From TrEMBL:
PANTHER family listed in its UniProt record: BLR2520 PROTEIN
Organism from which the protein derives: Nitratidesulfovibrio liaohensis
Protein name per the record: VOC family protein
Stored Pfam families: Glyoxalase
Superkingdom in the source lineage: Bacteria
Biological classification of the source: Bacteria, Pseudomonadati, Thermodesulfobacteriota, Desulfovibrionia, Desulfovibrionales
Occurrences of domain VOC (ranges): 1-84
Family annotation (InterPro entries): Glyas_Bleomycin-R_OHBP_Dase (IPR029068), Glyas_Fos-R_dOase_dom (IPR004360), VOC_core (IPR037523)
């Protein structure tokens, strides 16, 4: 998919992971993710999202796969900002697969 990657994750687990379990109405079952090369970039992008009108859903924290946080954009769509050390990113920040 060029610069994009699709990952499948069970919906209930996704809602739990992004801090939206039990939300009413629940989001449509997807999140968009922005993967970054450095842990500190997660905090910086989360702060930038909040300054632009976003709402923190799940503050950045360590998880088994990396350091991630979630925010909702002004329309309520959940976004993940993630530093996943096992992902290789190219110089433009795109995930390198294979």
């Amino acid at each position: 998919m060029g610069e994009l990657a699709v990952a499948l994750y069970p919906r209930d687990e996704l809602l739990q992971d992004c801090g939206m379990a039990g939300a009413s109405p629940a989001p449509g079952g997807i999140t968009l993710a922005h993967n970054v090369a450095e842990r500190a970039m997660v905090d910086a992008l989360m702060a930038e999202a909040v300054a632009a009108g976003g709402t923190v859903l799940d503050a950045p924290r360590d998880k088994p796969w990396g350091y991630t946080g979630y925010f909702a954009d002004p329309d309520g769509h959940p976004w993940e900002v993630a530093h996943v050390p096992s992902l290789q990113l190219d110089e433009a920040g795109r995930i390198v697969l294979g």
